[in-house]
Amino acid sequence: MPETSGSIGRTPETHVIDYRAAERLLAARDPRGAVKLLDSVIAAHPENTAARLLRARAFFAAAQLRPAELEFTIVLEREPDNAFAHFALARTYQRQARPEQAKRHFRLAAALDPNPQYLKAAAFDS
């Protein structure tokens, strides 16, 4: 595969460093910076579900809801039992005013993991 200007000198080790740096940027409330770092990681390793989940979280934090939805959906295609991804996708739908889709994924999250936050959001009693 030919190298692009963004991948010249990039190694698997560099991608790990970028991933860890993206985690720190997201924690420091710089989601756009995290996305920028993760773009090259995912370009080199599109199968890396952890990087996609982190990028989805960064998109969500940056209020880029459509890209967040897409990334969370890709994660769930690969890991349908990922309770956090269901919960995060539900929150994404909720912020897009799509309550029925949100409710479905809140309930899937709660069914997969009885985390109190997931159970509360699922609102099984309503």
Automatic annotation (TrEMBL):
Pfam families: TPR_19, TPR_2. SMART domains: TPR (SM00028). TPR repeats lie at residues 83-116. Keywords: Repeat, TPR repeat. This is Tetratricopeptide repeat protein. The lineage of its organism: Bacteria, Bacillati, Actinomycetota, Actinomycetes, Kitasatosporales.
